[in-house]
Write a structure and sequence with these properties.
54% of the residues lie in helices and 11% in strands. With 212 residues, it is of the alpha/beta class. Strand 4 (173-177), helix 9 (183-189) and strand 5 (193-195) form a beta-alpha-beta unit.
Length: 212
């Protein structure tokens, strides 16, 4: 496929009109919806790579996520299975207890969904027992905690303690990110990974499920 007709490249470059035109072209040609999603997932991964290399910034990431959301809305009726069945894995994301910031978390969720993950968004100010309950219910491959306020590092540790006490620690890979997060916090709390950016988290989650 030439670059000119690449849906993945158009999405990576956040060319909304071109994405819409190529999407229509694919649908008119009878391309399977799952194949279209796979191509768009490649585009989102490339957009993440562009961000990591400093070739684009947070507004582009968010815009790319919005374009991808529009594609999924267009294809929804053609995807016979549920989002979870179509996904490459499940991730539980949330902002830890006593922290109400959600921008970083939401960008990470956009990136994860963009490359094919089913993401359970717990929102903000999530208490430890809610994390435990959701892990039990959805059995995710990865859990991602966001923390932007330094005093809330205690909430990361409390959440990790609750997950261990519930006997779930060995069942999931746990990542932490956000302005107050660091390698030191990740190590002290017993997390598996610290991500400086949303793209780092997306790459780690992809590696966990064997597609990165």
């Amino acid at each position: 496929m030439t670059q000119e007709n690449s849906l993945a490249e158009a999405l990576a470059q956040c060319q909304e009109d071109k994405v819409k035109a190529l999407l229509k072209q694919r649908l008119d040609a009878g391309t399977a919806a799952t194949d279209i999603v796979a191509e768009c997932n490649q585009g989102m991964a490339e957009l993440g790579q562009r961000f990591a290399q400093g070739q684009c910034f947070i507004p582009e990431l968010m815009f790319g996520g919005m374009i991808m959301k529009g594609v999924m809305a267009e294809l929804g009726h053609l995807l016979g299975a549920s989002e979870a069945e179509q996904s490459i894995g499940t991730v539980v994301m949330g902002t830890v207890q006593h922290d109400v910031h959600d921008i970083g978390k939401d960008i990470a969720i956009m990136m994860l969904r963009g490359v094919g993950f089913n993401v359970i968004d717990l929102g903000v100010d999530v208490p430890p027992d809610k994390w435990v309950e959701t892990i039990k219910q959805h059995k995710p491959s990865v859990v991602g905690m966001s923390v932007l306020l330094t005093p809330c590092y205690k909430s990361v540790i409390a959440t990790m303690d609750a997950i261990r006490e519930a006997g779930l620690r060995d069942d999931v890979s746990i990542m932490v990110g956000g302005a107050a997060a660091s390698e030191l916090l990740s190590e002290n709390a017993g997390c598996d990974f610290y991500g400086e950016t949303a793209v780092d988290g997306m790459k780690y989650a992809s590696k966990v499920v064997g597609v990165g």
